[in-house]
Amino acid sequence: MKIEADECRAALMLIRRTIEEHCPPGVLPSEEAVNGLYGPELIHEAEALAAAIVATIDKMQLRVMMKPPAPSIK
What domain of life is recorded for the organism (predicted)? Predict the structure, then answer.
């Protein structure tokens, strides 16, 4: 089964919009910046999206690690 480039582009666009709405600012470069940093192909957009997801998880884990423990109730 072969997936058409337009379908891939639409799926990547949906993932990009979700990351832009729900992830911390700055984890995903603009589409223009992705072209310069990774390249112009769809696989390069996918690489940038994957990197943004990993960066978000890293930031979330760091936030949890730095959060002081709740005081115990005795």
Answer: Bacteria
d(CA 35, CA 68): 40
User: Closest Cα partner for 24 from 54, 69, 44?
Assistant: 54
Give 68's contacts (C-beta < 8 A, 6+ positions apart). none
Note the pLDDT tens digit of each residue in 8-56. Answer: 999 999 999 999 999 999 999 999 999 999 999 999 999 999 999 999 9
Whether the predicted pLDDT of 74 surpasses 70: no
Q: How many CB atoms lie within 10 A of CB 3?
A: 8
Boundaries of every domain in the chain? 5-66
